[in-house]
Design a protein that fits this description.
The complex is a heterodimer of chains A (437) and B (556).
Chain A: E1 3-13, H1 32-41, E2 47-52, H2 59-63, E3 67-68, H3 72-75, H4 78-95, E4 101-106, E5 116-117, H5 128-140, E6 145-149, H6 156-162, E7 168-175, E8 199-204, H7 210-228, E9 232-237, H8 254-264, E10 268-271, H9 281-293, H10 314-334, E11 347-356, E12 361-370, E13 379-385, E14 391-396, H11 402-418, E15 423-428, E16 433-436
Parallel strand pairs in A: 1-2, 1-4, 3-5, 4-10, 6-7, 6-9, 7-8, 9-10, 14-15
Antiparallel strand pairs in A: 11-12, 12-13, 13-14, 15-16
Chain B: E1 2-7, E2 11-18, E3 21-29, H1 35-49, E4 57-61, H2 64-70, E5 77-82, E6 97-101, E7 104-105, E8 111-113, H3 117-129, E9 134-139, H4 147-155, E10 161-164, H5 174-186, H6 188-204, E11 211-214, E12 220-222, H7 223-226, H8 237-248, E13 255-260, E14 265-271, E15 274-275, E16 277-278, E17 283-284, E18 287-288, E19 293-294, E20 296-299, E21 305-310, E22 313-320, H9 334-341, H10 349-363, H11 367-394, H12 401-406, E23 414-418, H13 422-433, E24 437-438, H14 446-453, E25 458-465, E26 470-473, E27 478-481, H15 488-505, E28 516-527, E29 530-542
Parallel strand pairs in B: 1-4, 4-11, 5-6, 5-9, 9-10, 13-23, 23-24
Antiparallel strand pairs in B: 1-2, 2-3, 7-8, 11-12, 13-14, 14-15, 14-20, 16-19, 17-18, 21-22, 25-26, 25-29, 26-27, 28-29
Classes of the chains: A alpha/beta (437), B alpha/beta (556).
């Protein structure tokens, strides 16, 4: 019998009875062949790997993280609550010491879901990693968390949620936004005034091979993690960088994903995208599970793997070297010191136009954050969309200073008095109040 | 009338049962070195007392294969596997001759790489050179496409017996398939000579009734079938007692059953009155197999569990050093403690008292405290084990939102206790579990009754891939084509009729409603943005059940 080096919890929830639509990539069958492969390999018989049922996330778990317009029930289904609950279960296993590592192999995914939610974009409704991380912070203290997003698409939702949080490092490796949805995730997207440098994007050119991905890991991701010194590392384990993925243009492999997870050694991995359900997912997931559990993964190879066919061009390698050194330089330059452009008490303002591709919703946002030396700063988002009238969300962040808390409560009072908002949402992490008006 | 025989650790019990209850029962000592002698003795004793012309079936629960495997007294096997990508197959090495051949089949059953004929030839030759006469042929995903196993099997020229993995179970689990195939071949010769001896013995007694063996899932298999599936006979003991309780008690709700023996207590669960089946298969030692079984757990607490002091701490079990002092042993046991405390009145209670008092003196506590502590400890071990089995079953992962939201939770409403010290334990269990406790009548031969009344079980998995136009039912050797319009309803109908006709071939007639569909799914397979076919999976079973219920009334 095989013995895992690290005790690992696996939350496998394929949601065999849920799909966005019958032929949509995010459909019932997505994890069917992964289940077959894991069962046939005997993964659940490895001593040290234990399978667990997901939790079901509560409405409060979602309200702690998102402004759901008009409310949580309208933008989620049971499947989303179970998927987020799967991530929460993974976190609880690790935080309670029941497992050293945990992998939430769940669907639907979440990393395109932003702070304010009007519907589904990029196959995501709620951000399951963010719901999980905020669950951890609510129950286990304000940890320093690093999210390494290895999905092929830029995790614009996760980036948006943690844009202002100095205690969360978000690093995304993805296909260059000029060539793929959602069209963002460039080097110069570095985080808000209170968290500059805590968002790091590594946009890789199309046709990057395992060599390029592992170069970025070794020369950008790992050095930045060393500097950030996180308490917890989370891998947003999207698998659509695979050379067989039907909706992307990269050349990563199952063996490469396994090596990446071995070196990154995340505490928690959460499945994100990946739509080559027969050619990639069974092998990539197997590789990730084995790597996280510390079991030999050298035999995990796709049946049609051909190293020569996916080798990257020399110019691609040179370009990646440049990107990586710039990303590290960005972290060094910005993450160490607070913004010089603005002083405490000023507002950092962003205007955003957001398109929900799955649901065809258009949203307009005005976001402002209080620049603050003492906390993540009170956040204020006015949002209007093609399906919801003007609404507002106010967040008093975890560990908010007195000034930001008072300011948040004042903004709430003003918003209620103004009468111009259809929905008013308050996230008050300091006093654990999640209110709707 | 039905005849059941259960070979136990110390005794072999045999009973004849009819609709009215137990007609006759006998008990003989088990001779571990010659099980057939024990069986012969039990048959002879039982049949000389009874007219056997109308015995409908004889069911045997025997430890033959289990003991042979546990004691390593098995034949050497040539295990030849083809694995393809994945976990290194060297991890699953078993048997004297284990060979991995290049070649692979994927999860859809497509051949990715043909078997390497040269490597295969070399492997077979190496086995033959080492005097190997029985083989196991196993490939990854052979339940989706058995061609590699068939190819390996064809290459094993001159073999006496070959197990092909896909014929054992439709379940996935390559490591389990390897272990199960290996065990099947390793005990094949032994089991067949046992079957010969049983048949000869019955012929000598002029008994013509069909003979079945009991399986770990509480069902039976005709001896003629068991001759090529001998692995199905492993670990049937706990199943015999579970089926015995089913026969003796009218269980309709969720319940727990405890069979408290000399060395161990077997725990089993019932959901809505039906014994719970382990979905993946039972483990033999540390090795998980594909042999379907009931969900049972065994813990090292029984009437003969030794009570000892170790570093000042009181210990009960898991060792059995000998019988209780009440029965002439040298070390006080749990039964002696129950005797002392007045819960039991078994054997020489004076000896129990002497033993307990001596140990209490060594421990520097009163004998009353010693016995109450020892009994409390034993009860706690049992309650903990029941709780952990319940938790495990209730936490079992599910894969659909529907099951997640509607999932059944087992909440026991009653506790059934059997085995030697059943009556002594009953009041203790009632208090510990806060549940009504029932000790069934005939509880001392419940195992043999369970064996006698168990019915044939069977299960199969039908897989249809309408894109590849393939239909396969691996364990009964169906491997056909299906058309592109093949659909779930037809698959369910076919699964039932395949199962019924297979059982008919074995001489067993069942009603259509006994062929129960337990899992069904139909996934649209999509290529690009178009549906290219359906992936249909249906699992059909005849669940464990007893011929008749004998609940003329439970004891207490």
């Amino acid at each position: 019998m095989i013995q895992a080096k690290r005790k690992m919890g696996l939350i496998f929830f394929p949601a065999f009875d849920w799909a966005i639509s019958p032929t949509h990539p995010e459909r019932e069958e997505r994890l069917l062949y992964t289940q077959d492969q894991l069962l046939e390999e005997g993964i659940f018989d490895i001593a040290g790997i234990v399978e667990y049922k997901p939790d079901i996330a509560s409405e409060e778990d979602v309200k702690r993280t998102h402004f759901c317009i008009p409310d949580v029930a309208s933008v989620t289904t049971e499947s989303h609550m179970i998927s987020a609950g799967g991530a929460i279960k993974a976190a609880r296993l690790v935080m309670d010491g029941e497992a050293e590592r945990a992998f939430a192999l769940v669907r639907p995914p979440g990393h395109h879901s932003m702070k304010a939610v009007h519907g589904n974009r990029g196959f995501c409704n709620i951000n399951i990693e963010a719901v999980m991380i905020e669950y951890i912070r609510e129950h286990y203290g304000q940890k320093r968390v690093a999210i390494v997003d290895t999905d092929c698409h830029h995790g614009d939702g996760t980036q948006d949620i943690y844009w202002h949080d100095p205690n969360t490092l978000y690093i995304s490796i993805h296909q260059d936004g000029r060539t793929l949805y959602p069209g963002s995730g460039f080097l110069d997207e570095l985080g808000g005034p209170n968290a500059l440098g805590k968002t790091i994007n590594i946009p890789l050119p199309p046709m990057t091979s395992p060599e390029g991905f592992l170069y970025a890991l070794d020369n950008a991701v790992l050095p930045i993690l060393d500097m950030f010194k996180p308490d917890i590392i989370v891998n947003s384990a999207g698998q659509d960088n695979h050379y067989t993925d039907p909706i992307t243009n990269m050349n990563f492999s199952a063996q490469g994903y396994a090596i990446l997870n071995d070196r990154l050694n995340p505490h928690i991995a959460v499945l994100e995208g990946g739509y080559s359900i027969q050619g990639a997912l069974p092998y990539v997931n197997l590789g990730i599970v084995l790597a996280m559990a510390g079991v030999d993964y050298s035999g995990v190879v796709e049946p049609d793997f051909n190293e020569g066919a996916i080798r990257q061009e020399k110019s691609v390698g040179q370009y990646i070297e440049k990107i990586c050194s710039q990303a590290v330089e960005n972290y060094r330059t910005y993450a160490k010191k607070p913004s010089k452009n603005k002083s405490s008490g000023e507002r950092g303002v962003r205007q955003k136009n957001i398109y929900y591709d799955t649901d065809g919703i258009r949203e307009k946002q005005m976001e402002s954050v209080m620049v603050c030396n003492d906390c993540a700063g009170v956040l204020y988002i006015e949002t209007v969309s093609s399906i919801n009238p003007l609404s507002v969300g106010i967040e008093i962040p975890l560990g908010a200073c007195n000034r930001c808390r008072d300011e948040g409560l004042r903004m709430l009072k003003d918003a209620r008095q103004s009468g111009k908002f259809a929905h008013i949402k308050l996230i008050n992490r300091r006093d654990r109040e999640y209110l709707d008006y | 009338m039905w005849l059941g025989l259960d070979v136990g650790g110390t005794h072999t019990d045999a009973v004849i049962v009819n609709e009215g209850g137990v007609v006759s029962s006998v008990k003989v000592a088990t001779d571990h070195h010659n099980l057939i002698n024990s069986i012969k003795a039990a048959f002879t004793k039982l049949l000389e007392k009874n007219n056997h012309t109308n015995i409908a079936r004889i069911n045997l629960s025997t430890t033959l294969s289990t003991n042979a495997i546990v004691e390593g007294k098995t034949e050497k096997v040539g295990v030849i596997v083809s694995s393809g990508p994945g976990i290194n197959p060297a991890f699953f090495s078993c048997g004297e001759q284990y060979h991995v051949i290049d070649g692979s089949i994927d999860h859809r059953g497509k051949e990715v790489k043909t078997l390497n004929a040269e490597e295969l030839q070399r492997a077979v030759e190496a086995c033959q050179k080492n005097g190997v006469k029985v083989f196991a042929a196993v490939s990854k995903f052979s339940t989706r496409n058995p061609s590699h196993e068939e190819h390996i099997s064809d290459a094993c020229t001159g073999a006496d017996f070959i197990t092909m993995g896909h014929r054992l179970s439709g379940n996935l689990g390559f490591p389990r398939r390897i272990a199960t195939s290996y065990f099947n071949s390793a005990v094949w010769r032994l089991f067949n000579s046992f079957a010969d001896a049983v048949e000869k013995n019955l012929a000598d007694l002029h008994v013509k009734s069909p003979v079945h063996i009991l399986k770990a899932d509480g069902g039976t298999l005709p001896l003629s079938e068991a001759r090529h599936l001998p692995v199905e006979s492993i670990l049937s003991g706990p199943a015999a007692s579970v089926m015995g309780i089913s026969a003796l008690c009218n269980i309709s709700a969720d319940a727990v059953a405890l069979d408290i023996g000399g060395t161990t207590t077997d725990i089993s669960l019932y959901a809505d009155g039906e014994p719970l089946v382990e979905p993946h298969g039972i483990s033999l030692g540390a090795l998980p197999t594909l042999v379907r079984s009931l969900a049972t757990r065994s813990i090292g607490i029984g009437g003969d569990s030794a009570i000892r002091l170790s570093d000042g701490a009181l210990r009960v079990g898991p060792e059995r050093i000998g019988p209780s002092m009440a029965e002439g042993g040298s070390v006080p046991t749990l039964l002696d403690a129950l005797n002392f405390a007045g819960n039991a009145h078994h054997g020489d209670t004076v000896m129990s008292k002497i033993g307990i008092e001596k140990l209490a003196q060594e421990a520097g506590i009163t004998p009353q405290k010693l016995t109450s502590d020892a009994i409390a400890l034993a009860v706690k071990k049992i309650t903990d084990a029941v709780d952990s089995l319940l938790k495990e079953i209730n936490d079992k992962p599910v894969y659909t939102i529907h099951e997640m939201l509607e999932g059944k939770v087992i909440t026991p409403k009653a506790l059934y206790v059997m085995g030697g010290p059943a009556h002594a334990f009953a009041p203790l269990m009632e208090k510990a579990f806060r549940l009504p406790v029932i000790v069934p009548e005939h509880y001392l031969v419940a195992n043999a009754i369970g064996a006698a009344l168990a019915r044939t079980t069977f299960d199969l998995t039908l897989l249809a891939d309408t894109e590849r136009q393939k239909l396969i039912v691996p364990n009964i050797g169906i491997n056909e084509t299906c058309d592109r319009n093949y659909a779930l309803e037809k698959a369910k109908k076919d699964a039932r009729s395949y199962l019924m006709s297979h059982l008919k071939k074995m001489g067993i007639a069942i009603q259509e409603h006994d062929a129960q569909i337990v899992e069904e799914s139909s996934f649209n397979m999509v290529g690009g943005f178009y549906t290219t076919g359906k992936n249909i999976r249906v699992r059909c079973q005849v669940k464990p059940a007893v011929e008749v219920h004998l609940h003329s009334g439970g004891g207490r």
